[in-house]
Structures
1.
Amino acid sequence: ELKVEQNPLFLSMQEGKNYTIYCNYSTTSDRLYWYRQDPGKSLESLFVLLSNGAVKQEGRLMASLDTKARLSTLHITAAVHDLSATYFCAARDDKIIFGKGTRLHILP
Amino acid sequence: DAGVIQSPRHEVTEMGQEVTLRCKPISGHNSLFWYRQTMMRGLELLIYFNNNVPIDDSGMPEDRFSAKMPNASFSTLKIQPSEPRDSAVYFCASSLLGTSGYEQYFGPGTRLTVT
């Protein structure tokens, strides 16, 4: 059974700093997703990673995938307050399983 | 495209009442998912459909929950009778099966409160 674990679950950081959120999954998955959720809002798709070594970047966010280690990372560069949100990763075998989310709070 | 549409956006009901949540997926999408989100349990997949056919309903918590997809543009999630522990945000998402990404697009959610 596919399990997805994120860490940390909570992260408070200062603007301008860099940080990484980690997403481990337990069995083979053919794709890895990252979503963002603002408080009281729905989930917004950020990245879909399809192959080993895949790297995608959008602004200050960069996601990568290592299928051999069953690990994906979401790296935040020079954080700004607007990036405060909860970030979910999800993996897929026959259905998509979400991690518990990382609540990111960026202090101005 | 208007995106995934859910109704109602908020529902407050009394314990024992029937609740029906509605979802219209993105036109052309052929997979539809119902999720429930709570602080305690996070985001849980309840059921999903491919081409209007239920594929996996193992996440449906009890027989009180049922879901239907009578056509490609409409799905319902029904709770009968409702209980306070059913209070949560229910999301519907749709996707296009067969594309390489199989990316899910989420609706705005229905916030259900059962008193």
2.
Amino acid sequence: AQSVTQLDSQVPVFEEAPVELRCNYSSSVSVYLFWYVQYPNQGLQLLLKYLSGSTLVKGINGFEAEFNKSQTSFHLRKPSVHISDTAEYFCAVSRMDSSYKLIFGSGTRLLVRP
Amino acid sequence: DSGVTQTPKHLITATGQRVTLRCSPRSGDLSVYWYQQSLDQGLQFLIQYYNGEERAKGNILERFSAQQFPDLHSELNLSSLELGDSALYFCASSGPDRGTDTQYFGPGTRLTVL
């Protein structure tokens, strides 16, 4: 079975500061990795995904994530956040070899303060 | 706008009742996934359909059922509703049945059971 852990339920940060949202996963088989963002009262939007190749993945809105196989991590980073980045961020995995259902972490609420 | 539509946006009903949630996938997408988002369980995969056939099942209660029609829209039926079924229900769609395909999420249906 797969599982995803997002240790930080909330991350407060000041505007224009860098941020890192942590994600660790557990799986006995190879997985694809995703970060989704959910703005208030909206659905989920894909930020970025890791399928294979370069371990540094760039996504939308200036976000990037690095896949670390040895540490089974896929942390999300942004060098300078904006007020508009305030949202809930979800890390997710899907197996490479069967149903591609997404297994989500519990989410991290990013709160950007002026 | 992800291209995935869900109706209704909000649904308020009473315990013991039955409701139907509807999802129209993006044009050309063959896979439809249903997820439930609740405060205590987080985001959980319920069921997946591919081109009209059930492909995978998650933690879906026996009181819940789904189907995908020839025009590829999908319906999630929830019966004998309980207070604990109150949640946000998302539908997502993706293209050919490959794990590399992005799942695009609809805006969700908020179900409130009183």
3.
Amino acid sequence: QVQLVESGGGLVKPGGSLRLSCAASGFTFSDYYMSWIRQAPGKGPEWLSYISNGGDSIYYGDSVKGRFTISRDNAKYSLYLHMDSLRAEDTAVYYCARVPVYSSGWQLDKWGQGTRVTVSS
Amino acid sequence: DFQMTQFPSTLSASVGDRVTITCRASQSISIWLAWYQQRPGKAPKLLIYKASSLQSGVPTRFSGSGSGTEFTLTISSLQPDDFATYYCQHYNNYLTAFGQGTRVEIK
């Protein structure tokens, strides 16, 4: 079955960096766009970034543009999010999700369980 | 600025009730709308995409309708598992926005 497992979250100081990973299994990773979404405590989801199946098309939300970098390694069935210049408002649970662009559209059809990032001094 | 407005923010209902949640877009989005269910401490789960297409494995008591600017998610007969928070999401290629959520609680 489809599985997405995030890792790499933790406590980081303001201005620091962190790299999140998402390990995919149960589907052909290179056939799918992927996405990162986050959810701050008590808030709704906030989309952060998409990456195309080949990694050649990338999109970011305004709140993370220039600070966060999405990437993928299809051979390793892995998705990444490198986060720089972290701020207190980046504190959230971070999810990776699958995007079935070629079969049904840009909705997020499978999500991981999330990894928590806390930015605090 | 594009916005998705979801209402009500909280809804109290009983098992067996018919429940409707509304999502309104600030401009026409055709049928590019999805609905998600999120239980406490869990990731969101896709229920409906393209406004009215039921995601595989989702019970048929969930249905979606609408186009343009107004959309609804209906649960025909609320079950104990359905007490959760529901979010709408507009998507159009890489442009996307979530609604603020509707918490469905036990009356």
